[in-house]
Design goal:
By secondary structure, this protein is mainly alpha-helical. About 65% of the residues lie in helices and about 0% in strands. It has eleven helices and no strands. The protein has helices at about 5-20, 25-45, 50-70, 75-90, 105-120, 130, 135-140, 145-155, 160-165, 170-175, 175-185. Helix 1 runs parallel beside helix 3, helix 3 (about 50-70) packs across helix 5 and helix 5 (about 105-120) packs parallel to helix 8. The longest helix is centred in the N-terminal third of the chain and has 21 residues, at about 50-70. It is globular and about 45 Å long. It starts with 6 loop residues before the first helix and ends in an 11-residue tail after the last helix.
């Protein structure tokens, strides 16, 4: 990926690399993704601005391929649970592990999450509540107000209304969102510690 030049070869390479997930047996799916996310989190800060776009595309393709893999395995509950745990551990980590993952990578994962799930889950059969769990966790426990706001924006995506119309329980999880909004407005300081207007 590092030496790939020009947009079309970069797109083909990103797609080809992400498609490596699909034939994997279930016992290798999560370890493969763990290695992918660990490597990206470790090296993200060393990617120069001229190469960043192709790695953003690679992340997008891997999120899509991960959802496709889960869909191809009928959204197996154990696989979904393992995937959600992995996402909460590395790309959307909060708390102690959050400092190891650059915010730019987290922002991009949040930006891609619903869009790539929408592409894969046309019939709306995925376990949406479980898959949105990592995003909801970032909204509650994210280290900065900007990170929590980005997660909140992801949860407010219009495409999620399709899933809600199908009767999934995501709306139940959003009931606490107003309380979070009130907390942000009432008592929380801006992380910069500046003066109030």
């Amino acid at each position: 990926m590092w030496h790939s030049d020009r947009p079309i070869p970069q797109q083909h390479l990103a797609t080809s690399l992400s498609q490596l997930l699909l034939p994997l047996p279930t016992s290798l799916f999560l370890p493969f993704l763990h290695a992918f996310w660990t490597t990206l989190a470790r090296d993200w800060s060393s990617i120069d601005s001229l190469r960043l776009d192709k790695f953003l595309l690679l992340v997008r393709r891997y999120i899509n391929a991960s959802f496709l893999y889960l869909c191809n395995h009928a959204w197996d509950a154990k696989l979904v649970e393992g995937y959600v745990d992995l996402v909460q551990e590395i790309p959307l980590s909060v708390g102690d592990g959050a400092a190891k993952v650059p915010d730019g990578l987290k922002y991009h994962v949040l930006d891609c999450w619903v869009e790539e799930l929408d592409k894969v889950d046309g019939p709306r059969g995925c376990p949406l509540e479980a898959l949105m769990g990592p995003v909801r966790r970032v909204e509650r426990e994210g280290a900065t107000k900007v990170m929590r706001t980005r997660a909140k924006d992801t949860l407010a995506d219009e495409r999620l209304k399709d899933w809600l119309a199908m009767g999934d329980g995501l709306a139940e999880g959003n009931k606490g969102q107003k309380a979070e909004d009130d907390r942000d407005k009432d008592g929380e300081e801006d992380e910069r510690g500046g003066l109030e207007d």
